[in-house]
Amino acid sequence: MKRHCIIFILISCAFILTACNSSPVPENKNLPETSTDFESIEVGTKREDILRSFGEPDSCLSGLFGDIYIRGNEQIIIYYDVGDTGIFDENAIPVLDVSISAYTPQSDELNPQTEAEKQLAAFTEYYTDWQVKEEQDWWGYAVTDLDQDGNLEIISSECHGTGHYTSTSIYEIDPIHPHFSEVCNGTSSEALATLEALSHGGLLMESPLLMPHQEMSGVPQTYPVYYDENKDVYYYIYEGSINNPDDWRGVFTTQRSFSLRCGEIPGISSGGEATGILLGCKKTVYHGNYTSVDHWDMYGNYITEDTYGKLAEQYYADLQKKEASILWIECQHLEDLSKEEIYNLLKSSMDSFSLADI
Questions:
Q1: Is the sign of the CA dihedral 209, 213, 214, 220 positive or negative?
Q2: Mean pLDDT over the full length of the chain
Q3: N or C: which end of the chain has fewer CB within 10 A?
């Protein structure tokens, strides 16, 4: 899972410069003044048509591919699809998605009104406490309410090299110990160590990790969730991969589940080494002229590909299935941003978080 974050940043910076200073747009004296017209924008619409209809954007996404329009108390973000190559015509790129959320203008001194905004202001003021340790390869943040208790969390993740060094920390607003606390943290396990542990046949506890499925996508990403109504616990499912070029050439994938409850992983002290459950794993090996794929369940038993794909569904068969939507703030050098810019990034992520029945 080789990271090319720096390349993407350079590409996106070039896009920002061109997108916010693009060629003149035909004059339109009747530009929409509300967000209603933005709702009718269809996926695939060319950017030149957007500019012709709505004028130049008020600003552009930093590190992502999109334009930002402000209409009254609403913020509209139009995401564009530049493909995998990064080579694109600034006016011809198609719309990928449109996001409309509430907008509150911010001054240099944050003036939060709602409880959620006050929590975001606390995260903003003390951002160095949840900032990743190493801003290289890939890193990202997301604002969530994973346990649905009204206290927001910030997920802070980073991944280096081929995925051998992936870590996730989750910080949650703490009414008892202001302003927030690190409620859990975890790092990825080596492929061979995981396989060796599975061979013992016991339930394997794993670190909770959460990252985007597709890096630098610029749009909210979804994750399966299972809700235990009796225990009031939400189990989040995540699949992470490690490229292994050393002992064997291939990819090692783990499917894991983790949950937050009352500011901590159940049974784990706040701030301690948190654990989740390893549901299963998959080992893909490239042999030159053919590829072999093996699957295991949580006890180390060999299983089929179809069974592997249904591990979470079977393990949580009696629980309510839901889907979480998370917008990641990717590869942002926070120290280069103003507090207002950090706050607005966090608010955009918060507004995009949802947990819905499916």
A1: negative
A2: 79
A3: C
